[in-house]
Amino acid sequence: MSRFDNDAWRFTQRASPRDQVRVTDPATGAGITNSYPHQVPLAGPTPSTPWAMYLAGADGMYRFVCFDLDASHGNAANDADRLSFWLADLNVSHLVCESGPTGGRHVWLALDHGADPAVIEQIGRMAAQLLPSLDITPLTNPRTGCVRPPGAPHRLGGFSTVLAGTLTAFIFPSVTADDLTALRSFLADSGATLDPPRTSPAKGMAFDTAGHPHLLGPRRVLTSRARTLLDSEPEADTSVTLARALAMLARARWRYSDVAALLPSSPALVHARSIAGRGARRPVSEHAAARRLAAAWSRAVYFAAANPFSVVGNDDDFLERATQVTAAVAACQARADSMPGIWGFDTDSRPARADRGRRTHRLVLDAICLYLTQSVQSTVEVDTRRLAEDTGYGRESCRLALLALAAPSIDGDAESAWIVKTEDSVGIHGSRFRLSHRFSTESEDQSWAQVMTRPAELPLENRQWWIQKISSLLAPLASDTFAAPGSLGRTAGRVFAQLRPGAAVTAADIARRAQTSPGQALRALRELDRSRLAHLTDEGWARDETADLESAAWELGVTGYLDGRRDRYATERAVWSWWHAEHTWMTTRGKRRRGKQGGTALALFAQTARTEYPFYPRGADRRADHRKAKQLAAAGALRAPDIWAA
Fold first, then answer.
1. How far apart are CA 646 and CA 633, in angstroms?
2. Is the pTM of this model over 0.85?
């Protein structure tokens, strides 16, 4: 054993965030495999085989970020140079090492405070889109993610040697939360995106055949303000101009294909087709530009659906609202995560859990947080049917959850509840809710550790981060595989949501994250394994790379359950809107009377002075026939003119 080995081991002992490191088998030290199946204590002698240092502490918070650039996956040296250039440009302290004789590279960041795994995983997945050689596995698994530190021997000979930077950057951590946020923003501006899973459409929304959202209704002529915005040079912050332009186009009932046609030429869309460079923006590939535009368009449509009457072109307080809303959502989520018992996420008896709260309540709270973030408003209209579509539970369960969340924990103090109703339902519009003001207050006083749990307050990026985080947790639960009778069940859905491809996690860690008992988690994992949605590795459980919830639902015989419920809910919405329009017409004074009713259904639908709806069906006694109305709506009688778009 060389003196260099001993020096490297002492260096590892000083830097390691845990009391152990991982080592290879003696039999594989010569380079047969590249696995580190065993642990040895730091207090022991220098290992006789290569070792790897954990990136996260025992608490699961990352103390180091290491971009592991594998020469077998691409040009690792070139990717390391690019990444080092970016970090230097951002003034982020880092260390670049050649990992060994194969030409791989390690780019290290030492964090001055622990960072949440979700933040690091997002940075890793975004960086992988720009750096083909990057292996993101260590950045997606805080329990087992490890990399050989500087000086550690390589299995094929040689050592991890420093190419750029000094060991001071490694021994004395200096990378802050703001540095991580700046890096994440740079990656986003360079073309990396994280598209959130598709959630249920808001009122007045639909999806085209390619899955892009849009507002219902015929395409409108653009206002002079919108045309000026599209043809004028963008603001210094091009992302703000892009957001404003897309919101205007969404309100004009444009489709994604219409917007994509403007991508090559409109100055307002420059943020989607280029990235920041030295002195001028640099164009990205057509594929990257289309992906950036699609993600921005989705956010714009959800925003426009929730804010149908605001003047987007002059929305001066948008960024301020985005900051306030995401801060309140972050405080609410942190508080909810710290109190798993009140949601029934424990091992108490069913009656004991029901006396305090139910799992439905937490999912409904999560969905409301998602709607607030999408709308960038302090209050949001909450439709129990939409909640049902996004959580997988029925509308009655969601209605009861709303009542429970709005119930004060302190008599007479409405703000002691999780949510507060601000408006009752009127006509076709549901009740409006907001988060309790206590979350707005709490969000103003965040500790350092809490700040590192999520990105810093860059409004647009922070909003996108929360949309991605919450929708990723809700999406699996709103599938037939976990929500239908006879399916794997919602516990399995919560467990599945915590798994990632290629990132192994123990059953105990999964139980903690999914907030269930270890026994329940293990049973759910076995069910997921049988359905080819997860598998057990030497290091723990991971989601299958080819996991397909639709195929699993088909094999379980539950395909179509939620689609059928969505169709029923859509019919109920249509009938209620139809009847409300009928009642409004009947009670309006001075209206133009409709002509004599025709004798057939076809003539009846054609003869109306109110062009947006046909006559409401009535029985022989002239009373409204709601059953007939439901049959007609289910048959598609109301779909052709897109009359639900109001």
1. 17
2. no
